[in-house]
Design brief:
The protein is an alpha/beta fold and 491 residues long. The chain has helices at 9-15, 33-44, 58-65, 89-94, 99-107, 114-122, 136-149, 212-224, 246-254, 306-321, 329-335, 361-374, 389-394, 396-401, 427-435, 453-463, 480-485, 487-490; strands spanning 24-28, 48-53, 69-72, 84-87, 111-113, 126-131, 155-162, 167-171, 176-180, 195-198, 238-242, 261-266, 274-280, 285-291, 294-301, 344-348, 351-356, 380-384, 408-412, 447-451, 469-473. It has three domains: 9-115, NAD(P)-binding Rossmann-like Domain (Rossmann fold); 124-335, UDP-N-acetylmuramoyl-L-alanine:D-glutamate ligase; 344-490, Mur ligase, C-terminal domain (Protein-Tyrosine Phosphatase, Chain A, Alpha-Beta Complex), CATH 3.90.190.20. The strands form three sheets. A ten-stranded mixed β-sheet has the order 8-7-9-6-10-11-12-13-14-15, sandwiched between helices. It has a six-stranded mixed β-sheet with strand order 16-17-21-18-19-20. A five-stranded parallel β-sheet has the order 3-2-1-4-5, sandwiched between helices. The longest helix has 16 residues, at 306-321.
Length: 491
């Protein structure tokens, strides 16, 4: 079956030359983090929006609670008088026969990825896009908060819910538009920002990119698409990058004679424009912030881990480009509560849960290292759900190495996401590989297969001991095991 018609952001400008006020827009998969934010933005621009999803995710519930027209289930009746259908890219790959997509093809209603609509909505703004395989959401939200504190009234789109905002979008009406720019499916090529903040580049998305070189070159292409027009009201075209990260430096080298400005942040490199000095890790995550050689004060982050120090530096470096006053950096960084599912602590009687989005081997290892430093002497139970069969198959060895800092490990069955199960790999393969490592080889039973969510929750109820720190990781809805494993369920 042929794919639905798709439009890019330039064609959307021709479709809606005077804006989208009054246009009827229907979103399929409304409960996703990114598409729900775009629906908010379209609604704020005056579009008549509706949406649907198969499950009441937290984002779907938020839209419903705020009065947006969102439904459960798929039905071609949702397309009555609709001018535009917006989808998450994976739906077109995985479920091309959804009723709304079939109806849209039959009625020749334009269908776009939500990233294309976001790119259209960014036009005319001074856009700042945050990219990289790690930390995009945290940096985007923190940069947005710095801009809010400065009175810049930005629009901000994040792929997770900011605790301080209680949603994944800030509906400002100023000149600046700050967004999270995802590399998968080349989604970020729909954006042409004035400023790019690049946090980390390494191999990821093996189901889409064949190699590190291919994903690196995607970032190079994205940065070369920066808005370089003559604008007196905007900062110069600028790349803000993590000079501690080899992949970021590789991207910079491959930009060749690209004429934009470059601003750097780093923890390790002494020549970076924005730096962290005198770092205190473990139970207090603090550092002295130095910007352009000047010490601005002591930052005490509420979010733990060296990676969050790097995220804070990235946000400051981006904020310095758009004119956020330096006196705001230290108090705003110190007050920021973070994002949902980013080392989010859930107290539960004599134990605690940590809900974290980590889904790449590097991120899993960093999260467990941070937990070990934050809670010394306590038993760490790592609960992890791999996302995508191809990702686990390609990264099986790095994933197995990521759990060495845990005391007990429970692997939840793979979340298929946009893939079908072809028998390529099973979650038990990761169990076997972790159990064979020296950290676990002399402790039979320390690594277990949890199965589905309900089965995993039951296993955790049986396993948990007073003082446990139970770290639940994965990009899917694996955090639902927390509710099932809490003390209220044990009694």
């Amino acid at each position: 079956m042929r794919q639905p018609m798709t439009y890019d952001d330039i064609e959307l400008a021709a479709l809606f030359p005077n804006g989208i006020a009054g246009a009827r827009i229907h979103a399929i998969g409304t409960g996703g983090s990114g598409i729900s934010a775009v629906l908010w933005l379209a609604h704020d621009r005056g579009a008549l929006v509706s949406g649907c999803d198969i499950a009441p995710t937290s984002m779907w519930k938020l839209l419903h609670r705020e009065g947006l027209d969102v439904a459960l289930g798929h039905d071609s009746a949702h397309l009555e008088d609709v001018d535009l259908v917006v989808v998450s890219p994976f739906l077109v790959y995985r479920h091309p026969d959804l009723p709304e997509l079939v109806a849209a093809r039959a009625r020749r209603i334009p269908v776009v990825k939500w990233q294309a609509l976001l790119g259209y909505l960014m036009r005319g703004s001074i856009a700042i896009s945050v990219a990289g395989v790690h930390g995009k959401g945290s940096v985007t939200a923190l940069l947005g908060q710095l801009a809010i504190a400065a009175g810049l009234d930005p629009i901000c789109e994040v792929g997770a819910s900011a605790i301080a905002w209680d949603r994944n979008v800030w509906l400002g009406h100023g000149r600046y538009f700050i967004n999270e720019a995802d590399e998968w499916d080349y989604n970020f090529l729909h954006y042409h920002p004035r400023v790019v903040v690049l946090n980390a580049v390494e191999f990821d998305h093996p189901e889409f990119f064949a190699s590190y070189e291919q994903i690196r070159d995607a970032f190079v292409t994205f940065i070369k698409g920066i808005d370089q027009s003559e604008r007196a009201d905007a900062p110069p075209p600028t790349l803000v990058l993590n000079s501690d990260n080899p992949g970021c430096l590789d991207v910079l080298e491959r930009l060749g004679d690209w004429s934009g400005a470059v601003r750097t942040f780093a923890i390790a490199r002494a020549d970076a424009d924005v730096r962290a000095e005198d770092i205190q890790g473990g139970q207090e995550n603090s550092f002295t912030l130095r910007v352009d050689g000047e010490r601005l004060g002591r930052v005490r982050l509420r979010t733990p881990g060296m990676h969050n120090i790097a995220n804070a530096l990235a946000a400051v470096a981006g904020a310095s480009v758009i004119g956020v006053p330096p006196e705001l950096y230290v108090p705003e960084l110190s007050a920021w509560p973070g994002l949902r599912r980013r080392f989010e602590v859930v107290e539960d009687g004599d134990a605690l849960f940590i809900d974290d989005y980590a889904h790449h081997p590097h991120a899993v290892a960093l999260t467990l290292e941070t937990v070990r430093a934050r809670y010394p002497g306590r038993r760490i139970v790592a609960v992890f759900q791999p996302t995508l069969y191809t990702r686990l198959h390609r990264f099986l060895q790095p994933f197995s190495e990521a759990f060495d800092r845990a005391d007990e490990v429970v692997i939840v069955e793979i979340q298929p996401s946009r893939e079908a199960d072809t028998g390529l790999i099973h979650g038990s393969a990761l169990v076997e590989r972790i159990a064979a490592r020296s950290a676990f080889a002399d402790r039979p039973g320390a690594v277990r297969y949890g199965g589905a969510y309900d089965e995993t929750a039951a296993l955790l109820r049986a396993l948990r001991q007073p003082g446990d720190v139970i770290v639940v990781m994965g990009s899917g809805p694996v955090n639902q095991v927390i509710a099932g494993a809490r003390m209220s369920q044990i009694r």
